[in-house]
Design the sequence.
């Protein structure tokens, strides 16, 4: 294991009864990398991600995240990661500010720290007029941007994003990816799942999961060369079709 | 400690922001208190009383007047025959028929003895029993008076000796039914609101998906649970306070015992209920499931609490089950402290058992709450 590997996964397996949701996967993610974790619905992406963030126990195999073992040091892992789930992860019946205070608070940030950070976040996102309106009243794209920023409140080393742009319009998606790049440039490692193949092109490296296994893992450029196609979309289709 | 504060703060904000829940939490229980306290009574009143007077003498009329004077009976007009009266009972227009035989007065004078026939609709056995007692009381008073009036002049030295019992009713001198019911109904309100709200609260976060987000934070189990349950403990206490004020002001229920003792016991009791709520929410995925399970326990606990039916008259096995019913202890404590002024030493067994339940229930809840799957 090199020192710069933020995520190190070895033979990770998760079984639900007889069904193998994640089948013996292994990979590494480097510090500051934007790692795309692709796969069709039901391929096992979310299950794999849940093991990495410490809320699901692996059946076999091992994984370390930010240098901590997900099985034995789950609480340390949680302290060092941010997570934004597919399902909306902020409280709709609280305002933007209240959400920031709450999540800052439960990560143990001081109230001065929370105040400063929420001010910075509101400035950065240009949310002055909306800071005191309920999150539930915001358009989806805004919600997701706020959720991403909240996931970064406690300066995590890695952020896990589970389909963060699902259902979001193209312009907001572009802005969202600009935010992702900004964080990656600050040295934050990004682990992102998506169904949008144009987003896959933005990633430094991409893995494609099919039926619980990782069938391809490389830079988008190399993958396209390997499969002799000119878009990630075609890589994905070719891979999924070959397996079937 | 700070982390718990942030959770409590958030819970209170959510509770007070929910415009639909707020009236459910505060207004509905109080309406229930007012309605149930007035309606849930075992007193038998307004008994529909029919009589068939075959004698038609001053004595028989005097007997009927006695019934008219009683507040328990609604005396209806004279039925010409027993047959017609029976028909009225069949139709549900009459609860009790008193038939005064012909020559009632003459028999009583001659033989110092006369028979009266009383027919009681006994579909509701308990009510029929009570009605029988009322009728007997009135008839006895009547005979005593009749004896004195009729025999005084010729039987001076031969007066019947009667033993009279003079009951004195302790703790509820006026036999006011509300005094008995209100403390128990207060128990129900505090229990229902805290159980349902706590049971559904965490499940709701499961449904929305925010619980997953919480589970990814380094928050400790105990911090989360204390933060989640504390607001409902406060709500329960507020509800008890409002309920006590209403009981005192609206129903003039005496509060003889120590309020401090009542509140301290209530804290322990609510901890039991909150532990149960949390336990339920750990094993359910939707608010609907949680609601049904909470309701299942609630119905059993209420019916076996001694609130509506005395535990002493339940079968042995059921009495054994009530030992595990926290509502039973709370009803007992509320009645004892509020009406009798019981002190800590009097309710010690209840306090101890409730305390053990609180520990057991919350331990189960904490153990079964999993941050990982």
Sequence:
């Amino acid at each position: 294991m090199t020192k710069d590997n933020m995520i190190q996964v070895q033979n990770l397996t998760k079984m639900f009864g007889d069904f193998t949701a994640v089948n013996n996967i292994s990979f590494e993610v480097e510090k500051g990398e934007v790692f795309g974790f692709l796969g069709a619905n039901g391929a096992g992406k979310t299950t794999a991600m849940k093991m990495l963030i410490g809320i699901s126990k692996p059946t076999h195999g091992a994984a370390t995240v930010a240098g901590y073992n997900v099985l034995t040091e789950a609480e340390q892992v949680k302290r060092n990661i941010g997570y934004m789930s597919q399902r909306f992860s902020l409280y709709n019946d609280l305002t933007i500010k209240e959400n920031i205070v709450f999540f800052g608070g439960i990560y143990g940030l001081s109230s001065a720290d929370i105040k400063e950070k929420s001010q910075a976040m509101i400035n950065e996102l240009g949310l002055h007029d909306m800071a005191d309106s309920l999150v539930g009243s915001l358009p989806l794209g805004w919600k997701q941007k706020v959720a991403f920023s909240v996931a970064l409140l406690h300066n995590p080393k890695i952020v896990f994003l589970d389909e963060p742009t699902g259902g979001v319009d193209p312009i907001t998606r572009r802005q969202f990816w600009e935010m992702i790049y900004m964080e990656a440039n600050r040295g934050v490692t990004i682990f992102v799942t998506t169904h949008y193949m144009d987003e896959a092109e933005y990633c430094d490296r991409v893995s494609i999961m099919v039926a619980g296994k990782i069938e391809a893992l490389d830079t988008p450029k190399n993958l396209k060369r390997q499969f002799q196609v000119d878009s990630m979309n075609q890589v994905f289709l070719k891979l999924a079709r070959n397996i079937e | 400690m700070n982390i718990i504060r942030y959770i409590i703060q958030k819970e209170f904000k959510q509770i007070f922001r929910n415009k639909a829940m707020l009236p459910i939490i505060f207004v509905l229980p109080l309406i229930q208190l007012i309605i149930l306290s007035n309606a849930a009574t075992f007193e038998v009143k307004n008994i529909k009383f029919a009589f068939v007077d075959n004698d038609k003498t001053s004595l028989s009329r005097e007997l009927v007047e006695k019934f008219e004077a009683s507040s328990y009976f609604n005396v209806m007009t004279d039925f010409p025959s027993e047959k017609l009266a029976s028909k009225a009972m069949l139709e549900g227009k009459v609860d009790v028929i008193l038939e005064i035989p012909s020559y009632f007065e003459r028999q009583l004078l001659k033989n110092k003895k006369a028979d009266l026939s009383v027919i009681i609709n006994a579909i509701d056995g308990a009510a029929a029993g009570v009605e029988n007692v009322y009728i007997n009381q009135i008839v006895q008073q009547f005979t005593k008076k009749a004896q004195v009036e009729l025999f005084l002049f010729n039987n001076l030295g031969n007066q019947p000796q009667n033993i009279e019992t003079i009951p004195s009713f302790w703790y509820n001198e006026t036999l006011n039914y509300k005094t008995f019911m209100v403390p128990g109904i207060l128990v129900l309100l505090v229990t229902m609101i805290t159980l349902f709200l706590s049971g559904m609260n965490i499940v709701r976060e499961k449904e929305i998906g925010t619980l997953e987000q919480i589970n990814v934070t380094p928050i400790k189990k105990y911090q989360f649970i204390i933060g989640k349950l504390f607001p409902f403990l406060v709500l329960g206490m507020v509800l008890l306070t409002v309920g006590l004020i209403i009981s005192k002001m609206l129903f003039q229920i005496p509060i003889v015992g120590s309020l401090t003792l009542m509140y301290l016991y209530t804290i322990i009791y609510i901890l039991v209920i909150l532990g149960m709520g949390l336990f339920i929410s750990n094993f359910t995925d939707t608010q609907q499931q949680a609601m049904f399970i909470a309701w299942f326990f609630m119905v059993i606990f209420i019916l076996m609490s001694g609130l509506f039916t005395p535990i002493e008259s339940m079968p042995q096995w059921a009495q054994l089950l009530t030992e595990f019913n926290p509502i039973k202890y709370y009803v007992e404590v509320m009645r004892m402290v509020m009406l009798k002024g019981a002190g800590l030493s009097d309710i010690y067994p209840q306090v101890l058992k409730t305390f053990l339940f609180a520990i057991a229930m919350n331990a189960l809840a904490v153990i079964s709450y999993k941050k990982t799957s």
